[in-house]
Amino acid sequence: MERSWSDAASSAFEAYPWRSAQERERARAEAELVAFGERVEVDDLPIAVRKWLRRRAEGPVSGWVWKGESWRSLTEGFERTILSQALAANGGNGTAAARALGTTARVVAYKARKYGLKMNFRKNNRTTTKTKKEGK
């Protein structure tokens, strides 16, 4: 028996990143099977979809509480963390980190020096590693 869908359940179902059409159709059939009443509600959706919705609603900084820090302090801390992770993921290669972050190698080099992060620089086909404390 095909049931109607609430707007919230329909929106969530459509937005979910399904791996295949088969997975999507199985989930649709399961939701309609377990639904109580005439309509499929969000609570009737598969567990994976509900977990995905919760994570999406929480956002990237869930659990974070403002403790009176200044805007500058917060943004610089975030910027340093992201840059540090991008450099680590790319073996310290500033150009690759810049590409991953969607910015230029010059910006990454400037920020790395600003925050004292180690980064590989290319000079005359030789790789050197510098930090802000060691000099430019």
Fraction of helical residues = 40-55%
Mean pLDDT: 83
Just give the CATH class of the largest domain: Mainly Alpha
Architecture of the largest domain, according to CATH? Orthogonal Bundle
> What's the name of the CATH homologous superfamily of the largest domain?
Homeodomain-like
Any idea what the shape is? elongated
SSE ordering: EHHEHHHHEE
- Portion of residues in beta strands equals 5-15%
Q: Spatial order of the strands in the main sheet? A: 1-2
Q: What is the CA-CA span between the terminal residues?
A: 71 Å
Written description of the protein model:
A hairpin with a 2-residue loop joins strand 3 and strand 4. The longest helix is centred in the middle third of the chain and has 19 residues, at 71-89. The N and C termini lie far apart (71 Å). This protein has six helices and four strands, in the order βααβααααββ. Helix 5 packs across helix 6. The protein is elongated. The strands form two sheets. It has a two-stranded parallel ribbon with strand order 1-2. Strands 3-4 form a two-stranded antiparallel ribbon. The protein has helices at 7-15, 21-34, 47-58, 71-89, 94-101, 105-115, and strands spanning 4-5, 39-40, 119-123, 126-130. The chain has two domains: 4-58, no CATH class; 71-130, Arc Repressor Mutant, subunit A.
